[in-house]
Amino acid sequence: MNSRTLDSSPTAGPTAALDTASACWLKTLDRLERTTVADPAIRALQRGIRSLPLGAMRDLLRGRPLGHPVHPVLVQVPIGCWLSASVLDCVPGTQHASTTLTAVGLAGVAPAAVAGWADWADLPPEQARVGLVHAASNIAAVACYTASLAARLRGRSARGRLWALSGMAAVAVSGALGGHVAYRQAVGAHASA
What we know:
InterPro entries: DUF2231_TM
Domain DUF2231: 67-189
Helix content: over 70%
Radius of gyration: 20 Å
Low-confidence stretches: 1-8
Oligomer: single chain
Pfam family, one: DUF2231
Keywords: Membrane, Transmembrane, Transmembrane helix
Transmembrane segments: 162-183
Number of strands: 0
């Protein structure tokens, strides 16, 4: 079998597309980590968050009693609710449940966001840059889910589902960015150990 036969196999196309998408994503993250345009704002925001008189609450928000950050634990509420709402949106007769899950997900945003900002305030510049875009993507997701809830409460379930799908796309981007920040933090911790 020659290499041309292997390249034209049905799996070569999807694998090549995935490799291309992955390379593009990693290149974008690399550029984002190196861009310094937002650094003055990032430094000011980090100083402001670190200067908040939180006392022992800061350690709780950072997850020190657990031995690991609490933000990834807290994001499970909004993400889980919103993903479940999207699944139920595909099931006839579950509009009320989808609306409830959308609302509960929105209620779970604040604790997750506060813990995330507490963690972000101590990140080095490369991670803080990606973390800021992560936060912006989360804001977009919250805006979409707020619009989804408003539409659902007005009886416009189709519009609510569309807003929810947009919100889920923002959550996916945000999750990928947050995972990158967490991975970079773990790699950095292991490299300095």
